[in-house]
Design goal:
There is one protein chain. By secondary structure, the protein is mainly α. It has one domain. The protein has five helices and no strands. The termini are far apart.
């Protein structure tokens, strides 16, 4: 649901500093959760941030974390990470 809210805000994320900061905090909390469904939602959130506010996500720093998480996560999370890494790779 959070990723959908971010998608609704879309390009406004580039200029809304307080909203971006809030979404970054939410992403950090979701990412640390052990529930695979919550972890996949965190991935959806970061994809929205990269799409609409790419200047706030350091993709070269984020990708090694993503790769590390891929090896340590459950199958649904790994699938979500794989799809996200493919979409990030096609953007660069």
């Amino acid at each position: 649901m959070i990723a959908q809210l971010m998608a609704t805000l879309g390009p406004e994320l580039q200029s809304a500093n307080s909203v971006r900061a809030l979404f970054l905090c939410v992403f950090d909390e979701l990412r640390l959760n052990e529930n695979p469904i919550v972890a996949v939602e965190a991935l959806r959130c970061v994809v929205q941030l990269i799409l609409f506010a790419p200047d706030i996500v350091d993709v070269p720093t984020f990708l090694p974390l993503l790769q590390k998480d891929m090896h340590e996560s459950s199958l649904p999370v790994r699938k979500g990470m794989f799809l996200m890494s493919n979409s990030l790779g096609s953007q660069s």
